[in-house]
Write a sequence for this structure.
């Protein structure tokens, strides 16, 4: 009932706050809210009482509905990912929410909202062993039998989680959310007036002190350091909420990740469902010799901001630990590659072409508004050109009989690779600029592909790109 009421919390609050305004009697507003709550509670109880599931030999059968009855058969072979989700309210009552996800779907195949924790773990164990004979129904009603110990592949200590927060910029999420909430909750103009009034008061007080220039510089530095420290604290708090108790284990070629401080999430997927791999490191992480390992799995894309912990095999680990984890899960592959094929450097300027077109226009507008100081925006052009040259110098790819890999970035570096047998489609692309420079790009796609980094071999000479395309196409035909 509480989970159902939470979905309608905002409309109920709006009804109570705004419903009594005007000439209407406030009693009718409260009575309407109570009627709505009673209807939601009754619907929740009926939904709970009419929800049944049965474990068969090869599938799980789910039956639900009050007026419209639904029955869904979910074969074990179709289930790619199992999520055991516990918010603090779940943990208080010793229950969990279990989601069964398949490839290509944007919604879970089934959502079992209120299961005893032992039932949820028993169902997860059944999916692990779906190739064997399913357990009878009575077994699920009892505590799950003791299973062999899982192999721990990666476990993060509290100090490791704190390091994740210190090396990330997640604190900006909270700051931007607070700004957005302030503009939504307070009347229009109140926030702007408060900021303007506070600024005037501070500047007026400071002007009466007649500080020297170096004092202004020190104050500005202290304020910047204070703001940076606040961001680090917020980032650490978010990291603790998300990654506390992070534990990656393997059992019978199936990976399981459990993490979370208040809201616990336990996700499980078979190794063969992994479609692509992504390694990333920011400049700050590189200085501290840390890296992030992410995977794409053959399951639906997360919707509504839903967490997918299993997509992060290593939120933060040393490069050696990430490489060892990849080598353990893909023993037939040689990672990292011994040799990367470089991309020709002659078209490096194309990476900074947007800045070459936009920055002069912005500088011209700034000069028009604030005078000669606006020309400082042009200082971005040398930096943009230098960064583009370094990015092109680091671009490269690797291709052999088993997998294809690409790398890129300079300030923030990344590597992305996939086994050839997991590729779903190929595309040879040439833009007008490619025709001018005699280059082409080969785009690759896998099931469940996501994220901001595409699996693409960019800016190759046309003949080389066609040769790579034919090599990959032959691998498709042989498969």
């Amino acid at each position: 009932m509480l989970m159902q009421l939470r979905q309608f919390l905002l409309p109920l609050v709006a009804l109570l706050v705004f419903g009594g305004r005007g000439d209407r009697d406030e009693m009718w507003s409260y009575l309407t809210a109570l009627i709505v709550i009673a209807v939601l509670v009754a619907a929740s109880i009926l939904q709970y009482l009419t929800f049944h599931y049965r474990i068969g030999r090869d599938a799980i059968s789910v039956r639900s509905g009050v007026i419209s009855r639904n029955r869904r058969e979910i074969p074990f072979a179709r289930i790619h990912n199992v999520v055991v989700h516990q918010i603090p309210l779940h943990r208080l009552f010793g229950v969990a929410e279990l989601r069964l996800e398949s490839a290509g779907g944007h919604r879970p195949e089934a959502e079992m909202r209120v299961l005893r924790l032992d039932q949820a773990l028993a169902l997860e164990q059944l999916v692990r062993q779906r190739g064997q004979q399913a357990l009878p129904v009575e077994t699920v009603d009892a505590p799950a039998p003791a299973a062999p110990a899982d192999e721990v592949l990666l476990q993060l200590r509290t100090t490791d989680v704190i390091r994740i927060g210190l090396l990330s910029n997640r604190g900006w999420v909270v700051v931007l959310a607070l700004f957005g909430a302030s503009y939504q909750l307070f009347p229009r103009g109140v926030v702007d007036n408060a900021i303007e009034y506070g600024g005037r008061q501070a500047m007026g007080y400071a002007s009466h002190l007649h500080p020297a220039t170096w004092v202004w510089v020190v104050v500005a530095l202290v304020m910047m350091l204070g703001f940076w420290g606040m961001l680090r604290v917020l980032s650490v708090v978010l990291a603790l909420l998300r990654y506390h108790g992070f534990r990656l284990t393997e059992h019978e070629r199936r990976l399981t990740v459990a993490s979370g401080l208040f809201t616990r999430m336990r996700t499980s997927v078979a190794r063969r469902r992994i479609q692509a791999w992504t390694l990333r490191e920011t400049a700050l992480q590189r200085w501290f010799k840390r890296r992030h390992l992410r995977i794409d799995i053959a399951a639906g894309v997360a919707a509504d901001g839903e967490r997918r912990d299993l997509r992060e095999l290593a939120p933060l680990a040393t490069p050696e630990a990430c490489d060892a984890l990849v080598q353990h899960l893909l023993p037939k592959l040689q990672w990292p590659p011994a040799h990367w094929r470089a991309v020709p450097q002659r078209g490096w300027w194309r990476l900074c072409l947007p800045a070459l077109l936009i920055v002069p226009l912005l500088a011209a507008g700034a000069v028009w508004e604030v005078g000669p100081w606006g020309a400082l925006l042009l200082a971005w052009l040398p930096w943009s050109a230098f960064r583009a040259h370094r990015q092109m110098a680091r671009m490269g790819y690797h291709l052999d009989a088993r997998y294809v890999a690409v790398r890129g970035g300079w300030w923030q570096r990344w590597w992305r690779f996939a086994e050839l047998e997991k590729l779903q489609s190929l595309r040879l692309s040439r833009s007008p600029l490619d025709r001018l420079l005699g280059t082409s790009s080969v785009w690759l796609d896998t099931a469940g592909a996501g994220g901001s980094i595409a699996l693409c071999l960019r800016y190759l000479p046309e003949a080389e790109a066609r040769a790579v395309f034919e090599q990959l196409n032959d691998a498709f035909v042989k498969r």
In short: Confidence is low (pLDDT under 50) at residues 131-146, 301-309.
